[in-house]
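Narrative summary of target 7.
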Amino acid sequence: MKRRFSVMAATVTMVAAMAANSLSALAAPKTMPDGNIFDAEFYAATYPDVAAVCGNNEALLYQHYVLCGKAEGRLPYAQGAAAPAAASVGGGVRTMPDGGKFDPAYYAATYPDIKAALGTDANVLYAHYVNCGKAEGRRPYAPGSVAVNYATTSLREIKPYESKGSGVQFFTEGRSISDCYTDLYGNKYQTALRGLTYKSPYTGEQYLRYYLNGQYNRFQATVVGCSLLQIKNPDTAGSVKIVADGRVLFSDERINTQTRPYKINLDLTGVQDLKIEMYAAEGLYGIDVMLGDPVLLKEVP
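Modeled conformation, tokenized:
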């Protein structure tokens, strides 16, 4: 343990040489940016060996606690000290110290495994969401409980990392034949992702796959049939399947000329891999399937 601390001490000493020690330690516990509770003044007073290296610099003291102190059994604040409360914004949703919106009651009730492990403390639950839950696709609050702004990105702007077959293609208004981005009801789209090939042992799978890295929250598009010949044949049907990290988010295998255009709005929170399979209806006068104006939405402050 002494060796471990000596390594940390050397690291912190170099950081301290570059950092101004003007940041004074606070006299009460506070919520750090990662959601943990920490009292720098208590930590420095209780562990003078650490204070001898880090001084009263709150950032350095907290860095020591995270990297070494916690594993060494050191306390981040005095037992029984009141932890700072998150500000209420109405209902169960709160604004957390880092500005994030979070509903601890919803989180605990929706994810009983987390509640069983961590209890119901709002700060502890929020720290789990930030460090683990968000990447796992867990929701911080009930859908619709907070007004959210989104930045929109056309799926056409994202390059797929894998393309299987040639039957799933983008068509763009002004750069393609008009019928390629127009559905059977005369609606035009700026971009259209179309399934052009029917599924058979000869054609194999037809799909596009995208790596999203968990940075988008929703997928929206209009589902409808289309045909270069504009022939309405209700006896054949195409299909669309959207899969996120191996989990089917959406599937419709009966898209035909009687299918009126309808919108889909899928939750992509935490999704890493997005796969879109599309197949046209079989036969000479079968129809293609179309995702009109497919977009990815990302929450913004």
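The chain has seven helices and 16 strands.
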